[in-house]
Backbone:
């Protein structure tokens, strides 16, 4: 394989095959990374995260929208180093639990730039959001409204420094009954959804939220789904939202899809997506009122790759290449049938049909069903690109497998930002 091969955009920006034909990410040789830090490992190109954050912000600026904000959906990669980087780039942060709120605050997001989500927020979660004075609470259901009313009556907000009654800004999450073309498990815009207020309920919810002292209803939120590869559903959502009234703040959620395979069609670019959202909001609202979006996957998926080591190769009907990770570090193939590429990290361009299997005790633990690899052997390092979103986030300890480290790479320097879990970590919480 020639070493000047241009890698597809599935790989982090700046990735290349070096003189030895080995994959380099963030200027670091992945074979060396595997040697130094072990496998499996999540390897992230720091500059890639940064440049995507900048592209989102610049796209808003280029569209001339003064009050446009990019809110990182922390669920995509809830790791302190990632959050710190996005906080430093001026993004806001979407959190969906007390845990994500803790991570966001700990990483330095100003509370005013935090947006709290959730379809089952506990009283404790709401209380801590109120006490911390997060920027926005996105209200999902009538029980949550009851809970907020009770907490406010209980003085959870206190009074402002100037002695005036404090207010918590809220948005109402609504389901605009718009369906994007994506996996059913990550489609959320339809009326029959576990998220938000649908149809007629939305009017009642807005009226109630408007009447509660201590709440400032600022606007509407809609997230129609994830891994969306077309822009029309976003435009349709804007046309639906305006029917609910003219509010000063809109949050149109996340959802921009990414490329997982080189042969997959190019999704809309960040610029096209931001431009389309801004145009749609402008057309519906007749102006540039505050507009938020909440990208997760589009900020981090292609910034990361996972490195594995081959443990065994077996030929029966298929050629089974088993590696040292699997459904404990990437649940997406098993949950959504998500397709990934795989390559031997120092022999790209293989042609042998293989099944890249994980090490877990079930047949469903297949990372790539139709991998093409170059004569894989035990000890080889295999890389799967585009694992920077919802991999680390959904990692688990199935079969007692410790979770992988996160390694940031930049200009040829690698640093561990999350260490590998140890065997001791597996017994750390035992109460006996
Ligand atoms: N905002 C809200 C309210 C959300 O629920 C989500 C994702 C996002 C923003 C970010 O969406 P994104 O830009 O990443 O598409 N585990 C699944 C994805 C679940 C997405 C859940 N909500 C996966 O691995 O595909």
Residues:
């Amino acid at each position: 394989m020639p070493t000047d091969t241009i890698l597809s955009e599935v790989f982090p920006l700046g990735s290349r095959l070096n003189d030895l034909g080995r994959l380099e990410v963030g200027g670091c040789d992945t074979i060396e990374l595997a040697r130094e830090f072990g496998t499996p490992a999540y390897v992230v190109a720091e500059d890639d995260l940064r440049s995507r954050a900048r592209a989102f912000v610049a796209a808003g600026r280029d569209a001339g929208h003064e009050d446009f904000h990019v809110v990182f959906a922390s669920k995509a990669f809830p790791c302190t180093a990632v959050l710190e980087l996005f906080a430093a780039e001026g993004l806001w942060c979407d959190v969906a639990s007390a845990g994500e709120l803790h991570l966001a605050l700990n990483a330095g997001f100003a509370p005013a730039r935090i947006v709290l989500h959730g379809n089952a927020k506990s009283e404790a979660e709401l209380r801590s959001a109120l006490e911390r004075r997060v920027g926005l609470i996105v209200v999902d259901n009538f029980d949550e409204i009851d809970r907020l009313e009770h907490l406010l009556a209980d003085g959870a907000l206190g009074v402002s420094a100037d002695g005036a009654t404090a207010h918590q800004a809220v948005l109402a999450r609504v389901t605009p009954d718009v369906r994007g073309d994506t996996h059913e498990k990550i489609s959320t815009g339809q009326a029959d959804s576990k998220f938000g207020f649908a149809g007629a309920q939305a009017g009642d919810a807005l009226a109630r939220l408007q009447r509660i002292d201590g709440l400032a209803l600022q606007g509407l939120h809609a997230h129609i789904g994830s891994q969306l590869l077309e822009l029309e559903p976003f435009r349709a959502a804007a046309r639906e939202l305006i029917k609910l009234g003219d509010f000063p703040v809109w949050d149109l959620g996340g959802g921009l899809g990414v490329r997982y395979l080189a042969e997959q069609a190019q999704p809309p670019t960040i610029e096209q997506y931001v431009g389309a959202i801004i145009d749609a909001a402008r057309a519906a609202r007749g102006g540039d009122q505050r507009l938020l979006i909440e990208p997760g996957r589009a900020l981090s998926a292609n910034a990361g790759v996972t490195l594995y080591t081959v443990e065994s190769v077996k030929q029966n009907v298929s050629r089974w290449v088993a590696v040292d990770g699997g459904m404990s570090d990437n649940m997406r193939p098993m949950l959504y049938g998500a397709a990934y590429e795989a390559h031997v990290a120092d022999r790209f361009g293989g042609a042998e049909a293989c099944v890249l299997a994980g090490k877990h005790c079930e047949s469903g633990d297949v990372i790539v069903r139709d991998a093409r690899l170059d004569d894989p052997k035990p000890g080889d390092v295999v890389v799967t690109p585009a694992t920077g979103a919802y991999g680390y986030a959904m990692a688990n300890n199935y079969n007692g497998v410790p979770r992988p480290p996160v390694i940031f790479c930049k200009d040829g320097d690698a640093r561990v930002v999350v260490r590998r879990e140890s065997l001791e970590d597996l017994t750390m919480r035992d109460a006996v």
